[in-house]
Amino acid sequence: MMMGAGEIWAGMGSTIAALMFVYAMFQQYCPSVLRYQFQNYSRWFINLLNPYISISFYEYTGERYQRSPVYADIETYLTGNSSQLARRLKADVVDDGKDLVLSMEDYEEITDNYNGVKLWWASRQSVTTNQTISFYGTDADDRRYYVLTFHRRHRKLVTDKYLKHVREQGKKMKIENRQRKLYTNNKNESWGGYRKKSMWSHVAFEHPSTFQTLAMDPVKKKEIVDDLMTFSKGKGYYAKVGKAWKRGYLLYGPPGTGKSSMVAAMANLLDYDVYDLELTSVTNNNELKKLFIEISGKSIIVIEDIDCSLDLTGQRKEGDKKENADEEKNPMVKMAKKQRNLQRIVRSLSLGF
């Protein structure tokens, strides 16, 4: 005799209720040692039935303020495959809007094949809300990450060869599709959260200025170009002598004298990104260090009006206020003190990074 649908659901409900009752009694009266052993055996049994292994790659991990380079390489690698395999895509434009780049949408999955082995990539995002009061609204942290899934018998192949292949291909594609960017630092109100939201926002760097178009003394122009090219090829030399691989230029003059054009010409010559650091939005040295940590290599850092942003050097002592006030009346003393403060800032930036 066939049972009706109602009877089947009623039987399932009774069974589930009985199992929940037994589980509650087990949790309440069973000794913790036995519960621990039962949980271990349960996990072992589940893992025995599931032969697949998963590896997660987070965009930001732990207390890191810098975006994970592994995540960035994987993102670039998957961008090349997702346009052909993914069902849901995100679109972005590069190269002055001429080229369209498609990448995986969140919660999308694609398959990859390496040496005859099938692997699965998934884009994930976990969102948590911080219970903080802010004039800028609720602070929601979105932690993006990729999940790689494969059969356990391919563990050695994946860990020894495949992941290295993904990173190498990602770096290669990043160089081929590189687009220079202009970064500006965000205000610290928008930083917070576990995800360590980027302290920089960016747009495509598109400036026509070159050293061929700059109106300046040809001898001085050649001197600057030669110095820049020597610096760009001198990474090994700086490492050999134990110095940081960096170069500083002080550009000064009234508005309209070509300072911005000079920076753009340098960026176009070296193919470097440009970071426009606005010191007025930085409140202390700790925030300044966090900003510098996020700056990528082979970049030009522009600090405008540095002589007007001297608060980072520290506060004056109370006992020196009267003496300093008397000295400020002398314009020569005031200029000398301003120059010393400027040098102190430059030294702080140079030695810290």
From TrEMBL:
TM spans (from-to): 7-26
Cofactor or coenzyme needed: Mg(2+)
Cross-referenced Pfam families: AAA, AAA_assoc
Domain called ATPase AAA-type core: residue spans: 249-341
Superkingdom of origin: Eukaryota
Descriptive protein name: AAA+ ATPase domain-containing protein
The keyword Lyase is assigned to this record: no
GO MF term (any one): ATP hydrolysis activity
Entry keyword Nucleotidyltransferase: no
Every AAA-type ATPase N-terminal domain range: 31-123
Keywords of this entry: Magnesium, Membrane, Transmembrane, Transmembrane helix
